[in-house]
Design brief:
568 residues; alpha/beta; FAD/NAD(P)-binding domain; seven-stranded mixed beta sheet; 20 strands; 34% helix
Length: 568
Amino acid sequence: MARRSRRYSVPSSSGRGRGSPPPAYTPYPNHEQTPLLKRPTYGQSDLDGSHHGFNICLRLFYLLIQLTIIFLFGVFLYKVLLLILSTISPHETIPAPPPTYSVAIIGAGPAGISAAQYLHSKARTLDIRFSITLFESAPSIGGQLALNDSTGGPVFPYNDRTQDPIIAEDIAGTALMWSNPLFTKTLEDTLGESIEFSELPSQQVGYFDGERIVSQTTRPYSKTPTSSWLGLIWKYGSSTWRAGAMSQEGDLRDRFADPPLESDVVQLMSSLGVAEPVQEYAHNGLDSRGIGDPYVTEVLAPQVARALAQKVSDVSTLAMVLSAFQEDTANAYVGGGDLLDRLEQILGATGVTVKTATEVTGLKHEEISSDASAWLVKYSAHGASGARAEAFDRVVIAAPSFDLYRAASVDDVEAASVLTYRPAHVAFFTLPARLRPDVYEDVDQVLFLERQEEGDSLGGVRELAFVREVVRIVDYGNRKVEYLYRALSDGDPTERLQQLDLEVTWLYQARLDNAYPFLYPFRRFPPFKLSEKGLWWTPAIHAIASTVDMSWLAGQIVAEEVVKDVLR
């Protein structure tokens, strides 16, 4: 029987045919290549994991190198960015805010407001800040150039608010407005506008000896009519034009256009060119100018008494010259607005804190901590109960209040006491008609001669002056024109006005404390600085003269000293 043979069909990925021979024999039976097994590659081992661990370490090493490169590249970019930013702006950090210094200014007259404005202006140009508080005992700013009624508001004729209030120019007369170049320049710089003055219409001034008008002059001096000029020459001779030339010496506008801020009074006088006339008695100045006694007695002496409340024999030559100039000058602002309005505008531009109706009652320098000291300003507000105290780094006294100086040293008190002041009384009254022409003639201002036997002006009254016409509302709404006058005297003029039988229809009277500094020919001058601890006062300027521009200059001088002190 024949044997049947078996046939096998083995699938193969290599495509080996059905009749192909089997794979060749290999000595590695476990690694015989089959469709399900791969031939091992070089470096791989199934016997241990050493090669696998090496690869992991190698990869970690490569990763570390990459991170290092990225870090170094980031640092490089950061440096480049800083370099670019430093090129654009030199300041890499935000600067610290400038230091702030608190300053108390006592008195809101021209000197105090000048100091506040100057500090505010300098702070904008320097890397400092000032926190300024202005204290004023009166209900409004302006010092003694502001009158206030019982409610603290302005004074109106007949107490009628439809009338024009009494302003600073009404109080001081035309003598107040003599251009004041320093104040005007500050006003223009602060408000950015041009300030101009106009010369007022001419006014007639009569000089009264108690019985009659003995002489007449014209204000402004430049508008004196030829007939009046010839009459004065006939009566007083060459003293007439020599006195006119002397009064023009009081025009200090060129010197005050850009004055030096000298803290030493003697150096200040030398810089202004007034050192000699400040230290010279007026009678010596009159003799050197050839002005005789008749003119001095009947014209010049009443002018000095009105402006300074002193005799010619007692004042300095500069004080006499300024008095004559101011009484012979008549200027006003163009476009309206009085001095107090302008002061308000300047304060509004500075943004300082103003405390009116607030009286400073004490001033003392004390240690407020283990490493700091300050000036404690004690004050009380009108109508409020109790007093308060506030600490300040620096203090400026811009008012002649001697009670405050007791807080300083003995030397400071002695220096301050060189200056003395006297009060004045000012009264405003209305009349149904002008002053009696049969006695006072048709003049706008009456100045009183000194009574040599009494050593005083007639009855203490030094001036009667027409201010302006006013309209009074009478019964049933009818309007009546009346005349507003001013009386200036050493005491209350009410009784004297009643004796004159002037038919007064309305009267307001006020006492002006410390109205006039005594302007003797000083040989010793007080300093502006009262204490090395940061205390100054502006009245030191009154050893020279007392005008709006003098006060304004004093405020700037003291403020400049404050700036220098904080920058040390």
